Amino acid sequence: MSDIWIVFAIIAAVIALFIWDRVPVIVVCVGCALALWATGILTIGQSLAGFGDPATIFVASLFVISAGMERSGVTAWVGQALIDKSGDSRVRLIVFMMLAVAVLSALISVNGAVAALLPVVVVLAVRLNRSPGRLLMPLVFAAHCGSLLLLTGSPVNVLVSEALLDSAGRNFNYFEFALAGIPAVIGGVVIAVFLGEKLLPARASKNLPSDLSRHAHTLVEQYRLSAEVQTLRIAEESPLIGKERRAFDLSDREGLALVSVREATGSAGPGRRDQLQAGDLVVVRGDSSAIGEFAQELGLFLVQEAEGTDAANNLFNRDSALAEVVIRPRSPLIGDHFFPGMVTPSGDLVVLAIQRGGQDLTAGTALEAGDTLLLQGTWEAMETRLEAAEVLVVDSPELVRRQALPMGPGAQTTLAILAVMVVLLATGLVPASVAGLLAAGAFLVSGVLNVDQVYRSINWTTVILVGAMMPLSVAIQQTGAAQLLAEGLVNWVGDSEPRVLLAGLFVLTAVLGQVISNTATALIIIPIAAVTATQMGIAPEPVLMAVCIAAAAAFMTPVATPTNLMVMEPGSYKFGDYWKFGLPFMVYFFFVAVFWVPLVWGF
């Protein structure tokens, strides 16, 4: 068997295994790379070279950047802005929602953007008495449209740009994708506004994601804390001025507990000053008489409601987190004596309240399985301590932060890092992979993310897929398989205009992209498209961009992308709902790829 037919056999096996979906994706991809080595098509160095390819590195860095935006509350801020702007208008909601998710997708990723806005959109649907099914599919499809706005929109964009560099000696620049992406987004919004009500179901949704946007207020009301938490400001003559914040101790004051100490500016983050100054805020919990005596003794004055914030915002903000935990059966904490206001044995969390069967426990009492505790502390302490097995966490602090804390700790740093990365990518001062690595490293060095969070943020399945499937693209070109297929396409097109080639490539890419990963599809089709353009003597730009648009057209099935599947249950969608609403999008994308693209990037 010739090398070409061996490559075709491997491609067929890979596609079949992807469709069968019984073998893990990474096993199929790594198996593909090893098969190319075992059959002698590629050397071992070539078979593994994809893992060190700049495109693979850039894709991995995008996941870190996405995590930084989510963790710092930038994506939550976008969601909050969506709530504020949309009001109760269906059209305004759809337009703002689709534009917001499109921009987010361009900056971070389709998966990250949809995951960030999905709970917000569900909450809006419930508030407006609308079916989530009328909103969630437009949300996902807008994310696919938005992935075409910038180089960072999807791994396929990166692969197409690298392929153009190999074919024509230049990349698609950072903003060049927007020439196709902007029409895609505008058309998608128009389709959703005018056809959404007719084509999308209005079924009752099941298992909706939790709305954590008012998480702190819910906990404060449940544990009846609103009247017990007060904010005090340090006066100019206070004896506390100059003392170390970490030495602040109220353990000897009965009925009074320190919740937090914040700088007057409200700033947070590593490297802040440790000495107390005039104007700093001291948040305490206790009865009003105890708080009054404490304030008078130490030169503090009560912050009036107009100047301060409510109890929920005092307890839950950029500095401090709230978490509700349940004492699990057989927990080593069972039998320990806890009481509201005490500091936990770790020394960095405060017990704000304890309940048993919905009733408050005020005196020191032995804990029992099923007791609930409301804890307060820094975000770092909360995330570290709650990983222990002694308790069950009701709502993950990380998930709460992403939904309920817009522009949280590190938000300003995140925006600065993003701005620098965009400048580097737009100007081409450094390769895309270097810009991505610098941005990812900046998130780590600045403390927005730690090492463990960086590792967890990377979707290793996607990274391995890209790295392991790249050798297949090399094999398609090296064996002459791309040449053979290109000649077949050229013969099929014949004397027809090049738009026929774009149409054929679009259909082939889009059909494959409904059943297997669009990234895997692109890695198979891109080398064929590039060689075909050379064979026909036309510029590679319109051909490669058409493939990129077709790869983004993952509209027809729920298994086409993880995000399509992500909204299936909360939207109560059936398989047929995807092709009904997806068909107009697919037709429009076909028009953009075949007729608009040649106007922008001439043949």
Automatic annotation (TrEMBL):
Domain of life: Bacteria
GO CC aspect terms: plasma membrane
TM annotation in the entry: 6-36, 93-126, 135-154, 174-196, 458-480, 500-531, 543-561, 581-601
Pfam families per record: CitMHS (PF03600), TrkA_C (PF02080)
Domain RCK C-terminal: 217-300
InterPro entries: Cit_transptr-like_dom (IPR004680), DASS-Related_Transporters (IPR051679), RCK_C (IPR006037), RCK_C_sf (IPR036721)
Protein name: SLC13 family permease
Organism lineage: Bacteria, Pseudomonadati, Pseudomonadota, Alphaproteobacteria, Rhodobacterales
